[in-house]
Each structure stands twice: as structure tokens, then as C-alpha cells.
Amino acid sequence: MMVEKSIIFINPPYERIARGYEFVKHITNNSPSLGLLHLAAEVRLRGYTPSIIESDIANLSIEEVADQVIAARPTYVGITLFTVGIWSAAAIARKIKAALPHTTIIVGGPHISSMGEETIKRFKEFDVAVVGEGEKILIELLDALDNQKPLSEVAGIIFRDGIFTRKTSGWPANKVLDELPFPAWDLLPGFPHAYKPAIYDFPRGPVATIAASRGCPFFCKFCDTSTFGSKVRHYSPQKVFEMMKHLHDNYGIRHIMFVDDLFLASKVRTTELCNMLLASDIKMTWTCTARVDTVKPDVLALMKKAGCWEISFGLETGSNALLKKMDKAAEVEKSEQAIKWTAAAGIRTKGLFMLGFPGEDSETIAQTKAFIRRIPMTIMNLTKFTPYPGSPIYRDIYGTNIREDHWEKMNGMNFVWSPDGISVEELDRQYQSILTAFYKRPRVGWYYTKLTIHYPNHLLRLLRFGVGFLKAKISSIASGRGGLLVKPGNAHLNNEKKPAP
Ligand code: B12
Ligand code: SF4
Hints:
The protein has helices at 34-45, 62-72, 86-99, 110-122, 135-146, 237-251, 267-279, 297-305, 320-325, 332-344, 362-374, 392-398, 424-439, 442-454, 456-478; strands at 6-11, 49-54, 76-80, 104-108, 128-130, 157-161, 164-167, 207-210, 213-214, 233-234, 255-258, 285-290, 308-316, 348-355, 379-384.
């Protein structure tokens, strides 16, 4: 008799700003892990019974996630790891291991692709790590575990062998994305309505995400590309269209967010997809990210017609000198042109900026402020520079020293490092000042007021956020913290040590 093997995939909880700011969940991006959806689809094809726990979206604490898994007694547990979620993932794994010592806990994701060996050495509660793209490796790994084959024969993994940690060579990337099954959206509890992207990032829901390509050939110093590497692989436009249609017809999806790094890298593919959308009866809006050197007025005009609602550009800074230090292979003038062309085509522009990269100083900050003032940008995101493991800058800053002390703060909302000559306090002040200057402009304010009135869903989320904020303030005052949401000194300090979990 065949025994049914089950695997529970977990996206662990993480702090979006810091403890005390949980209410931001109401307005921030609540997209599911697409990686887990891909893995679940793949293992299901091979006869396993997968399920998925999206901890944050289901509002589950570490204990509740562990309890759910323990009650289900799965054969395997698969956890996706971003650097920021590592401590909560380890806590969940520890509880599961204590109750179910024979359940194998497998980890993967960006943190593992960049720092797998160190993670397996440091966290004994994880049994095996899968490096890079997981679909093929996970199947081989499960086969080896099921049939007691030596793990040393599975490519792309890290495992413990007695007191040693071993890494097997070469992870096989998926060369032809069209061969992958569609992500298992049907397994997502509450899909699609529970998974809302950030407020104002879409006109009308429900929303789903698609990665139409994998890989990026650039090496921007702040970016962790260790999961997909530099070789770009695409789904065919036909397959992307089929995925969109599937989501539209089966789940009523009205907006797609393309999350791949270089959606517009190929003009031919973009044109083909747009033409398919225009010829079809599905009327969806969509957003994507692009490098400033990949947009041209003719493609933008076609994209607008085919439903493109917003393009996010990694603009980073208004300083050419800083762009050079980032190895961004872009110039401020090109960014300005791309934003102007996109706005002229009637597509919203989102500028992704970063503050505090090595070399940032009062002059580069002034240049960024001036740049923001002169471009027709609809919405902006400003992240606090974070040296993520896997990014080239991580090794420049820390050498080969493994620093685990700031992992839980690596969410782009804390300065965990600051450049010479500029303090974290000054960076925080400038952070507020840049954002306030943009969002206080009457043009921007009026635009968002109109958007809120037009789509009441945004208003509802704003209200929930407001209520959450007030509750957090009241509880802080009641507990004698004078309204402060985090204890002073919670954020920052480059050499602060993380206590043992
Ligand atoms: C969409 C996206 C998001 C979404 C969805 C997040 C999610 N949980 O998937 C949102 C907006 C919520 C988000 C938030 C954040 N993100 Co983000 N995000 C991305 C983005 C653009 C695409 C991710 C994606 O869907 N890829 C496609 C799927 C198929 O790939 P995947 O999820 O990586 O999964 C594959 C492998 O990693 C592996 N795998 C993954 N998990 C597991 C588990 C097991 C058991 C196995 C075997 C294998 C495996 O197999 C999967 C299939 O091949 C990436 C950039 C990129 N190119 O990947 C950044 C990226 C992953 N994000 C990043 C960061 C820093 C964040 C934030 C911390 C803050 C921020 N600035 O946004 C938060 C933290 C979120 C969290 N849950 O911890 C960094 C991660 C760096 C790091 N070392 O941690 C990346 C790499 C960006 C970058 N280039 O620096 N993000
Ligand atoms: S920032 Fe964009 S272009 Fe640069 S390496 Fe990352 S994904 Fe590629």
C-alpha cells in the first residue's frame, strides 16, 4: 500500500518595520510567496499532498503556525526564508522538531541562496537547505529522502553529515519556464481576496502576482540576485497570457502585478503579450518593474492600451556619482526621460529610491530632493539602504564576516548601517524630510484624494490603519512608554548584538 506523503510549506511572519508597528499590515504589500506556490504545484504533480501557511496574512503567531503543523503531522515541512524572517522561522522549526522529531524541515529562498551554509551551521533546527531555484532540486531531494538515497547525490543542497556541513555542487536552474506547472493558487487559503498589495498600488482588485521571467544580468551592488542568477529566462508571451486568463476566468482577478526584475527586457515579448491582451476579451490592468533604459514611447503607448497601469522604476538616487558607486549602469538623465515618457503615455510612474548607500552625503541627498521635485512621478517608495546577504555590497562592508546581528531588521525600514560622516539619526531625519516633501505637494495630495474616493477599498484600508495606529499609541501611553511605538534604541547601531533566540 502506498503511504501518502504530505508537505506543509510555510511563509513565516516577519517585522515590516519593527515590533509595535503591526498595524502597517493594513496598508503594506500582502502578496503571497510565489515561490511556495510554484513548489506546491511541482510536488503535487509528483504525488505529494502539499498545503501552504501564509503566517502573516492568516494573522498567525509563531506558536499558532507550529501548532497547526504539529496537528497535521506532515512528512515534510518547507520554509521559505528571507533574511528578515530567519529568527521566526527558526522558532517555528524548533517547536515542530520538539514535537515531531522525524519530520524533515527543508529551507530555501533568498536567504539560503546567499547564506545557506552559514544558516545550516547556525540553526540546527533546519535539516536540509535548497540553494537557488527550488522546483527541480526539491523533487530530487524528496525522492532521495523517501528512498534513503545518499543526499550527496542531490545537486544544489546543503545538509549535515555528522558534525560536518556539506554543500553539493551546481544547482540546476529551470531553463524552460513554460515547462513549469502553473503556481498552485488553488491551495492558498483565502485567495484571492486575502492577498492585497500595498494600498494605492492597484486600481481594482482582486490582484495576483506573476513572475514572467527569472534572472537578471546586472550586478547592482545593493541587490541580492543569488536565487535566480544572471542568466535571464522567460515564459513565452503565450504562457504568460494563459496564466493571466486562468487567473481572470477562475478567480476573477482584475489586476496582475508582474514581480520579475526585468519585465520589459525584451521589446518583442512585451509587444507580443500586449497584442494578445488587446485581441482577447479579458480586460485586466497590470503593473510591472523596469529599468529606465528599457522603455521607449512606442512600447509604452502599446502597453497603456493593453492595460498597463503603473511601472516601477529603480531610480535609487538623484546623484550620478552615487549611481556609479552602486554599479547601477544608469544615469539620472535617462531616469528623468523614462519617467517623462511613461507619464506622457498615461501610465503611472512609481520611483523606487534608496537612502544611505555608501557615499551618501548632504550633497547627494540634496540632488535626490531636487530630482524628485522635477520629475512627474505619481508615487514613490524610499527604502533605508540595507546590506542584504547575497548583495555585492554585503561583502564590501562586512568582508567574509558573518553578521547575524541585524537579520530581523533587514526589511528596508531600518538603517542597520550608516556611511562615514552621516549618522543614523541624520539619515532618519532626511528620510522623513524626503517623503514629506513629496507627499505634501498639492498635486500628489489631490491625486491620492481622487484615488481614495474612486476606489473605496483604499479608504477602508486607511481607516483600519488609522485605528491600528491609535490603538498602538494608546497602549504605549497606558504602559508608560509615552506614546513611543518602539523602545528607544530598538533600531540601528551597526555593532549591536542579537541575543540568542
Ligand atoms: C515579489 C517580492 C516580494 C513580495 C512577495 C514576498 C514573498 N514572500 O515572496 C513582497 C512585496 C511582500 C516582498 C517583501 C519583501 N521583500 Co521582496 N521581493 C520580491 C521579488 C521582487 C520577487 C519574488 C518572487 O516572487 N520571485 C519568484 C519566485 C518564484 O521565487 P522565490 O520566491 O524566490 O522562490 C524560489 C526560490 O527562492 C526557492 N525557494 C523559495 N522558498 C523556498 C522554500 C523551500 C522549502 C525550497 C525547497 C525552495 C524555496 O524556490 C522557489 C521556486 O524556484 C524579489 C526579487 C527576486 N528577483 O526574487 C524580492 C526579494 C526576494 N525581496 C527582498 C526583500 C529584502 C524583501 C523585504 C525584506 C523588504 C522589501 N524591501 O521589500 C520584504 C520581506 C518579505 C518577507 N516575507 O519576508 C530581497 C531579499 C533579500 C534577502 N536576502 O532577504 C529580494 C531578493 C530583492 C532583492 N533583489 O534584493 N517581496
Ligand atoms: S536592481 Fe534590478 S537591474 Fe539591478 S541587479 Fe537588481 S534586479 Fe537587476
